[in-house]
Amino acid sequence: MANNPMRDPEQRHRGIYLLPNAFTTAALFAGFYAVVQAMNGRFEMAAIAIFCALVLDGMDGRVARLTNTTSAFGEQYDSLSDMTSFGVAPALVMYEWMLHDLGRWGWLAAFVYVAGAALRLARFNTNIAVVDKRFFQGLPSPAAGALIAGFVWLVVDNRLQVPREFLAWTSFVLTLYCGIAMVTNLPFYSGKSFALGRSVPFWVILVFVAGFVFISSDPPVVLFALFVIYGLSGWGVWLWRWRRQGQLSASRNQR
């Protein structure tokens, strides 16, 4: 008589590990799809695919924690997926869309972004046990990819009548900023202190509904604005900490 998978705890336990890795694979596919669409000149679809990868990437870790299926393999696979979806894909989308107009300056900016994403992910993997879990060290690569994708989506969707040369140099500055911000020590809020359990209060559902409605009102504008605020928030936290440290030092000297 064949074994019933539903009655075999070991088989069922192994099967659960497929769930978070399935989300990671979907995020990897979205990043690859973004590159393909950019090569075909469909930049709006490429930007949307990167945002889809962002959502899927945020789900795989939470699913793994909720189902208690975290593993070293899953962590490494997630990092490789992030490198594709938020490292290589945004740089290639931006290069195919606008940076190629700048010649070597364009591909150099794209390379700075890719190198920044690789260094950011490598540092995250090595410092994961020693840093403050409330904050990321440097701009996280998904947020950097969302900044790039949001800018492309905003311009293409709204058909902004802006000189192409101006757009090219704006893209250059934004790409460089994202690449450099990923390797800084600026603290960016991680959101890990806000952990969702198996059940949540009713007000959390209301907040999610309100956020969904707000984003749906004009996705390119709202998403880009939100990630611009987040992309600059690290400077605000750093400045607040610097001023607070100065005030504490001054108070100690007065004693």
TrEMBL record:
Chief place of localization: membrane
GO biological process: one example: phospholipid biosynthetic process
Record bears the keyword Transmembrane helix: yes
GO MF terms, alphabetically ordered: CDP-diacylglycerol-serine O-phosphatidyltransferase activity
Lipid metabolism listed as a keyword: yes
Family named by the database record: Belongs to the CDP-alcohol phosphatidyltransferase class-I family.
Protein name (record): CDP-diacylglycerol--serine O-phosphatidyltransferase
